[in-house]
Design a protein that fits this description.
Length: 360
Amino acid sequence: MSKYIDFHIEISSLLHFVNEQIELDTPIPIKKEVIFDSLKRAVISSETKPFLFEHDSNVDKQYYEKYVRLENEFQDKYIPDYFSYEGDFYDLDANLNIAKRNTSDEVFKTLFLIKMLEINSARLSMNDFFNFQLYDNFYGDKESLAYFLVLFIGNDINPYLLPLIKEHINKWVIDNGQNAVFSLIKKEEENNKTEEEDDAFEIEANLQAQKDEEFYASKRNLKIKGHFTDDEIRHYFSFLYLEKGADKQPFLSEEAVKQIFANGLLIPQEPLLEKFELHCDPRKPKAIVDFAIHKLMIKNSFTSRDKNDYLVFMGSHIKNFESALHSIKKLVSIAKNISGEKPSRCSIIWNKYLPERFQD
């Protein structure tokens, strides 16, 4: 390795490692585009500020336009050391340590895997790396780290990776007295197995798919009726742009909220192709929006049976809920999680947004 590395999951180090592997034509188990996307998402979810702002009167416009042009013309096979997000440019070749608590599970797992490959390539101690991560990202919880590590030796990891990581993972898990994790993972895998070769299962799956299609077709252009007027619905959801987190950012822009609720709770003929995405972080979690949806259903609905309709509406407009459109089974599962339990970090005064006759 040409760059000194330590046991932190650090953006610049991962960037250099991946580009070195590309230069050496060394196989990497994850597509370059996925790695690039994960690095970008990790930077955006951190508190890192852009090095170049689109709307900054002090910035030389030609200097800014040069970056825009270079990004559009970039055709190289390597991952670039910068990227743009909402018009601003961020540095990927920066000393930024990624923390699990501030990163989505999907992104953290991808970057953790790349870090294991980097540690192995540098011939550093994988055991020391795991022990460091135990306290850096898993708060000393050995069972939690063991469960996380064993997931890497499941069927979803390319087989040629196993000689590199399986032995190290097995040894750490066993040495730390977490042998039961293997049985737990195996049991979960067995419970989740699908029998795609089974004709009966295939017939059942086809019938369910047909039911799903008919169900979602019945929801097109459906207006969810309730006690609130359309104006009251719009006022209620104005919290999405009026309430801001520690970073001064709302869940959604005012323009997005007005577009989503332009006709009240009307499910569109077709879901938006480009859905809006909630701006969430650990200090302003998605659970707050889940709670708001549940509160609206309790106050607005004529019947508790239309809970699924609310989620179909949200999934048609907002990316964070789009899995509610995948299947009835998935929709029911999501609905169970909308329980009405108030998040501990929610400081919103809901009476500001509820109609006076429905205030607590």
